[in-house]
Write a structure and sequence with these properties.
By secondary structure, this protein is of the alpha/beta class. The chain has helices spanning 17-34, 51-61, 76-86, 106-114, 132-150, 166-171, 182-188, 214-232, 236-267, 279-303, and strands spanning 5-13, 38-44, 65-70, 89-94, 120-124, 162-165, 194-198, 316-319. It contains 10 helices and 8 strands.
Length: 320
Protein backbone atom coordinates (compact mmCIF):
# COMPACT_ATOMS: atom_id res chain seq x y z
CA UNK A 1 0.00 0.00 0.00
CA UNK A 2 1.26 3.46 -0.91
CA UNK A 3 1.30 6.26 1.65
CA UNK A 4 1.67 9.97 0.96
CA UNK A 5 3.85 10.48 4.07
CA UNK A 6 6.25 8.47 6.18
CA UNK A 7 4.77 9.75 9.42
CA UNK A 8 1.50 11.22 10.65
CA UNK A 9 1.59 12.80 14.10
CA UNK A 10 -1.76 13.37 15.77
CA UNK A 11 -1.76 15.91 18.59
CA UNK A 12 -5.06 16.18 20.51
CA UNK A 13 -5.20 19.30 22.64
CA UNK A 14 -7.32 21.45 24.91
CA UNK A 15 -6.13 24.92 25.95
CA UNK A 16 -2.42 24.45 25.17
CA UNK A 17 -1.66 27.68 23.28
CA UNK A 18 1.67 28.28 25.10
CA UNK A 19 3.24 25.00 24.07
CA UNK A 20 2.09 24.52 20.45
CA UNK A 21 4.73 26.62 18.70
CA UNK A 22 7.56 25.06 20.69
CA UNK A 23 6.18 21.57 20.16
CA UNK A 24 5.94 21.96 16.40
CA UNK A 25 9.45 23.42 16.15
CA UNK A 26 10.76 20.41 18.07
CA UNK A 27 8.86 17.97 15.84
CA UNK A 28 10.04 19.70 12.65
CA UNK A 29 13.66 19.60 13.83
CA UNK A 30 13.50 15.83 14.46
CA UNK A 31 11.70 15.12 11.18
CA UNK A 32 14.14 17.12 9.09
CA UNK A 33 17.20 15.64 10.80
CA UNK A 34 15.96 12.14 9.94
CA UNK A 35 14.70 12.93 6.44
CA UNK A 36 11.09 11.94 7.09
CA UNK A 37 8.15 13.18 5.07
CA UNK A 38 5.52 13.99 7.64
CA UNK A 39 2.30 15.70 8.63
CA UNK A 40 1.23 17.05 12.00
CA UNK A 41 -2.51 16.98 12.65
CA UNK A 42 -3.50 19.23 15.53
CA UNK A 43 -6.99 18.41 16.82
CA UNK A 44 -8.35 21.27 18.93
CA UNK A 45 -10.90 19.76 21.29
CA UNK A 46 -12.97 22.89 21.86
CA UNK A 47 -10.24 25.07 23.39
CA UNK A 48 -11.36 28.33 24.97
CA UNK A 49 -7.94 30.01 24.76
CA UNK A 50 -6.00 31.00 21.63
CA UNK A 51 -4.96 27.47 20.65
CA UNK A 52 -6.76 27.47 17.29
CA UNK A 53 -5.30 30.85 16.36
CA UNK A 54 -1.79 29.49 17.04
CA UNK A 55 -2.51 26.38 14.96
CA UNK A 56 -3.78 28.55 12.10
CA UNK A 57 -0.60 30.61 12.19
CA UNK A 58 1.64 27.54 12.23
CA UNK A 59 -0.29 25.97 9.34
CA UNK A 60 0.03 29.20 7.35
CA UNK A 61 3.81 28.94 7.60
CA UNK A 62 4.22 25.19 7.06
CA UNK A 63 2.32 22.97 4.61
CA UNK A 64 2.99 19.90 6.75
CA UNK A 65 0.53 21.12 9.38
CA UNK A 66 -3.16 20.31 9.35
CA UNK A 67 -5.81 21.18 11.89
CA UNK A 68 -9.26 20.15 13.05
CA UNK A 69 -11.27 22.29 15.46
CA UNK A 70 -14.30 21.12 17.44
CA UNK A 71 -17.01 23.57 18.43
CA UNK A 72 -16.96 22.21 21.98
CA UNK A 73 -14.98 19.83 24.15
CA UNK A 74 -15.80 16.22 23.26
CA UNK A 75 -12.82 14.46 24.85
CA UNK A 76 -9.61 12.83 23.72
CA UNK A 77 -11.28 9.84 22.06
CA UNK A 78 -13.22 12.12 19.71
CA UNK A 79 -10.02 13.99 18.82
CA UNK A 80 -8.14 10.77 18.09
CA UNK A 81 -11.03 9.36 16.06
CA UNK A 82 -10.90 12.28 13.63
CA UNK A 83 -7.11 12.34 13.70
CA UNK A 84 -6.94 8.67 12.76
CA UNK A 85 -9.47 9.24 10.02
CA UNK A 86 -7.36 12.04 8.51
CA UNK A 87 -3.92 10.37 8.89
CA UNK A 88 -2.19 9.40 5.65
CA UNK A 89 1.26 8.41 6.95
CA UNK A 90 2.77 4.93 6.88
CA UNK A 91 3.21 5.11 10.66
CA UNK A 92 0.76 7.06 12.80
CA UNK A 93 1.90 8.60 16.08
CA UNK A 94 -0.12 10.10 18.89
CA UNK A 95 1.44 12.48 21.36
CA UNK A 96 0.22 15.02 23.89
CA UNK A 97 0.59 18.76 23.34
CA UNK A 98 2.01 19.61 26.77
CA UNK A 99 5.68 19.00 25.86
CA UNK A 100 5.94 16.08 28.29
CA UNK A 101 6.34 13.65 25.36
CA UNK A 102 9.63 13.92 23.45
CA UNK A 103 9.61 13.88 19.62
CA UNK A 104 13.16 12.51 19.86
CA UNK A 105 11.57 9.10 20.51
CA UNK A 106 9.78 9.01 17.15
CA UNK A 107 12.60 7.75 14.85
CA UNK A 108 13.25 4.64 16.94
CA UNK A 109 9.55 3.88 17.32
CA UNK A 110 9.18 4.32 13.54
CA UNK A 111 11.98 1.78 13.04
CA UNK A 112 10.31 -0.69 15.39
CA UNK A 113 7.13 -0.52 13.29
CA UNK A 114 8.69 -0.56 9.81
CA UNK A 115 11.74 -2.78 10.36
CA UNK A 116 10.85 -5.04 13.28
CA UNK A 117 7.23 -5.39 12.16
CA UNK A 118 5.35 -4.42 15.31
CA UNK A 119 1.72 -3.35 14.92
CA UNK A 120 1.69 -1.08 17.97
CA UNK A 121 4.55 0.43 19.97
CA UNK A 122 3.44 2.03 23.21
CA UNK A 123 5.55 4.48 25.17
CA UNK A 124 6.54 3.53 28.72
CA UNK A 125 7.23 6.44 31.05
CA UNK A 126 9.60 4.60 33.36
CA UNK A 127 10.45 7.77 35.27
CA UNK A 128 7.33 9.89 35.38
CA UNK A 129 7.75 13.57 36.18
CA UNK A 130 4.36 13.80 37.92
CA UNK A 131 3.03 13.92 41.46
CA UNK A 132 3.71 10.54 43.07
CA UNK A 133 0.45 10.46 45.06
CA UNK A 134 -2.09 11.84 42.59
CA UNK A 135 -0.55 10.46 39.37
CA UNK A 136 2.16 7.83 39.79
CA UNK A 137 0.59 5.52 42.39
CA UNK A 138 -2.91 5.48 40.84
CA UNK A 139 -1.29 4.90 37.46
CA UNK A 140 0.58 1.82 38.71
CA UNK A 141 -2.63 0.34 40.15
CA UNK A 142 -4.56 1.16 37.00
CA UNK A 143 -1.96 -0.41 34.70
CA UNK A 144 -1.73 -3.55 36.84
CA UNK A 145 -5.49 -3.98 36.54
CA UNK A 146 -5.38 -3.30 32.79
CA UNK A 147 -2.67 -5.93 32.28
CA UNK A 148 -4.69 -8.50 34.21
CA UNK A 149 -7.93 -7.90 32.31
CA UNK A 150 -6.58 -7.35 28.78
CA UNK A 151 -3.70 -9.81 28.84
CA UNK A 152 -1.45 -7.18 27.22
CA UNK A 153 1.83 -6.82 29.08
CA UNK A 154 2.27 -3.06 28.91
CA UNK A 155 3.58 -1.08 31.85
CA UNK A 156 1.94 2.17 30.76
CA UNK A 157 -1.13 1.59 28.62
CA UNK A 158 -2.33 5.19 29.06
CA UNK A 159 0.87 6.81 27.77
CA UNK A 160 -0.01 9.45 25.17
CA UNK A 161 3.04 8.65 23.02
CA UNK A 162 2.28 5.65 20.80
CA UNK A 163 3.07 4.47 17.27
CA UNK A 164 0.78 2.43 15.02
CA UNK A 165 0.80 0.92 11.59
CA UNK A 166 -1.60 2.98 9.49
CA UNK A 167 -3.82 -0.04 8.91
CA UNK A 168 -4.27 -0.47 12.65
CA UNK A 169 -5.80 2.96 13.22
CA UNK A 170 -7.99 2.52 10.14
CA UNK A 171 -9.32 -0.78 11.51
CA UNK A 172 -10.45 0.35 14.96
CA UNK A 173 -13.08 2.77 16.22
CA UNK A 174 -12.24 4.96 19.19
CA UNK A 175 -15.27 6.34 21.00
CA UNK A 176 -16.45 7.39 24.45
CA UNK A 177 -13.38 7.25 26.70
CA UNK A 178 -11.73 4.30 24.99
CA UNK A 179 -8.57 6.19 24.01
CA UNK A 180 -6.93 4.66 27.09
CA UNK A 181 -7.30 1.19 25.62
CA UNK A 182 -6.34 1.54 21.96
CA UNK A 183 -3.81 -1.34 22.26
CA UNK A 184 -6.68 -3.53 23.51
CA UNK A 185 -8.90 -2.37 20.64
CA UNK A 186 -6.06 -3.23 18.25
CA UNK A 187 -5.67 -6.66 19.81
CA UNK A 188 -9.40 -7.35 19.44
CA UNK A 189 -9.12 -6.30 15.78
CA UNK A 190 -6.45 -8.96 15.22
CA UNK A 191 -3.29 -6.86 15.58
CA UNK A 192 -1.48 -8.79 18.27
CA UNK A 193 2.14 -7.68 17.73
CA UNK A 194 2.13 -5.09 20.51
CA UNK A 195 5.19 -3.96 22.41
CA UNK A 196 6.48 -0.99 24.38
CA UNK A 197 9.50 1.29 24.44
CA UNK A 198 10.82 3.20 27.45
CA UNK A 199 10.50 6.90 26.67
CA UNK A 200 11.74 10.10 28.24
CA UNK A 201 9.09 11.98 30.19
CA UNK A 202 9.42 15.65 31.08
CA UNK A 203 7.76 17.92 33.58
CA UNK A 204 4.90 20.02 32.29
CA UNK A 205 6.29 23.38 31.20
CA UNK A 206 3.07 25.37 30.74
CA UNK A 207 -0.36 25.31 32.35
CA UNK A 208 -1.83 22.47 34.37
CA UNK A 209 -3.06 18.96 33.64
CA UNK A 210 -6.59 18.75 32.25
CA UNK A 211 -7.16 15.36 33.90
CA UNK A 212 -7.97 14.77 37.55
CA UNK A 213 -7.68 11.68 39.71
CA UNK A 214 -11.27 10.74 38.78
CA UNK A 215 -9.93 9.59 35.40
CA UNK A 216 -8.58 6.44 37.05
CA UNK A 217 -12.03 5.51 38.38
CA UNK A 218 -13.57 6.26 35.00
CA UNK A 219 -10.74 4.38 33.33
CA UNK A 220 -11.44 1.24 35.38
CA UNK A 221 -15.15 1.41 34.52
CA UNK A 222 -14.32 1.93 30.84
CA UNK A 223 -11.99 -1.07 30.95
CA UNK A 224 -14.75 -3.29 32.33
CA UNK A 225 -17.13 -1.97 29.65
CA UNK A 226 -14.63 -2.64 26.89
CA UNK A 227 -13.88 -6.13 28.21
CA UNK A 228 -17.59 -6.94 28.34
CA UNK A 229 -18.29 -5.54 24.87
CA UNK A 230 -15.31 -7.28 23.31
CA UNK A 231 -16.26 -10.57 24.96
CA UNK A 232 -20.06 -10.50 24.71
CA UNK A 233 -20.85 -7.51 22.49
CA UNK A 234 -21.49 -9.69 19.43
CA UNK A 235 -23.17 -12.46 21.44
CA UNK A 236 -24.98 -10.92 24.45
CA UNK A 237 -27.24 -13.97 24.72
CA UNK A 238 -24.22 -16.02 25.76
CA UNK A 239 -23.90 -13.88 28.89
CA UNK A 240 -27.46 -12.86 29.73
CA UNK A 241 -28.99 -16.11 28.53
CA UNK A 242 -26.59 -18.33 30.45
CA UNK A 243 -26.83 -16.25 33.64
CA UNK A 244 -30.62 -16.04 33.38
CA UNK A 245 -30.98 -19.76 32.73
CA UNK A 246 -28.72 -20.58 35.67
CA UNK A 247 -30.70 -18.33 38.04
CA UNK A 248 -34.02 -19.66 36.75
CA UNK A 249 -32.99 -23.28 37.25
CA UNK A 250 -31.62 -22.51 40.73
CA UNK A 251 -34.85 -20.82 41.77
CA UNK A 252 -36.98 -23.55 40.19
CA UNK A 253 -35.08 -26.32 41.99
CA UNK A 254 -35.35 -24.45 45.31
CA UNK A 255 -39.11 -24.03 44.82
CA UNK A 256 -39.64 -27.68 43.92
CA UNK A 257 -37.57 -28.78 46.90
CA UNK A 258 -39.58 -26.61 49.34
CA UNK A 259 -42.94 -27.81 48.00
CA UNK A 260 -41.82 -31.45 47.87
CA UNK A 261 -40.55 -31.32 51.46
CA UNK A 262 -43.85 -29.86 52.62
CA UNK A 263 -45.90 -32.54 50.80
CA UNK A 264 -43.73 -35.40 52.09
CA UNK A 265 -43.96 -34.21 55.68
CA UNK A 266 -47.70 -33.64 55.33
CA UNK A 267 -48.33 -37.13 53.94
CA UNK A 268 -46.23 -38.64 56.76
CA UNK A 269 -48.17 -36.60 59.35
CA UNK A 270 -44.98 -34.87 60.41
CA UNK A 271 -44.64 -31.29 61.50
CA UNK A 272 -44.13 -28.93 58.59
CA UNK A 273 -44.11 -25.21 57.81
CA UNK A 274 -46.34 -23.65 55.25
CA UNK A 275 -44.50 -22.88 52.04
CA UNK A 276 -45.34 -19.17 52.28
CA UNK A 277 -43.90 -19.01 55.80
CA UNK A 278 -40.43 -19.88 54.60
CA UNK A 279 -38.05 -17.03 53.59
CA UNK A 280 -36.32 -19.44 51.23
CA UNK A 281 -39.50 -19.62 49.16
CA UNK A 282 -39.45 -15.89 48.45
CA UNK A 283 -35.76 -16.05 47.62
CA UNK A 284 -36.52 -18.83 45.16
CA UNK A 285 -39.31 -16.79 43.53
CA UNK A 286 -36.99 -13.78 43.26
CA UNK A 287 -34.30 -15.93 41.64
CA UNK A 288 -36.79 -17.30 39.11
CA UNK A 289 -38.02 -13.81 38.21
CA UNK A 290 -34.50 -12.44 37.85
CA UNK A 291 -33.60 -15.41 35.68
CA UNK A 292 -36.53 -14.75 33.36
CA UNK A 293 -35.68 -11.03 33.17
CA UNK A 294 -32.03 -11.71 32.32
CA UNK A 295 -33.04 -14.27 29.71
CA UNK A 296 -35.38 -11.75 28.08
CA UNK A 297 -32.64 -9.11 28.25
CA UNK A 298 -30.43 -11.46 26.25
CA UNK A 299 -33.06 -11.69 23.51
CA UNK A 300 -33.49 -7.91 23.45
CA UNK A 301 -29.74 -7.33 23.26
CA UNK A 302 -29.50 -9.78 20.37
CA UNK A 303 -32.10 -7.72 18.50
CA UNK A 304 -30.57 -4.29 19.15
CA UNK A 305 -27.22 -3.41 17.63
CA UNK A 306 -24.81 -1.77 20.00
CA UNK A 307 -23.40 0.26 17.09
CA UNK A 308 -25.05 3.68 16.89
CA UNK A 309 -24.87 5.79 13.75
CA UNK A 310 -24.48 8.86 15.95
CA UNK A 311 -21.71 7.53 18.19
CA UNK A 312 -18.87 9.27 16.43
CA UNK A 313 -20.65 12.31 15.08
CA UNK A 314 -19.02 15.51 16.30
CA UNK A 315 -19.63 19.13 15.39
CA UNK A 316 -16.49 20.38 13.62
CA UNK A 317 -16.06 24.15 13.45
CA UNK A 318 -13.10 24.38 11.08
CA UNK A 319 -10.46 22.41 9.20
CA UNK A 320 -7.08 23.33 7.80
Amino acid sequence: MEYSKDISIIVPLFNEEESLGELFSWIRKVMEENGFSYEVIFVDDGSTDGSWKVITEIAGQNSNVRGISFRRNYGKSAALFHGFEAASGRVVFTMDADLQDSPEELPEMYRMITVEGWDVVSGWKQHRQDNKVTKNLPSKLYNATARWITGIRLHDMNCGLKAYKNEVVKSIEVYGEMHRYIPYLAKNAGYTRITEKPVHHQKRKYGTSKFGIERFVNGFLDLLSLWFLSTFGKKPMHFFGFTGLLMFLTGFIMTVWIIAAKLINQSAHLKYRAVTDQPLFYLAILTVLLGVMLFLAGFICEMISRNSNERNKYNIKDRL
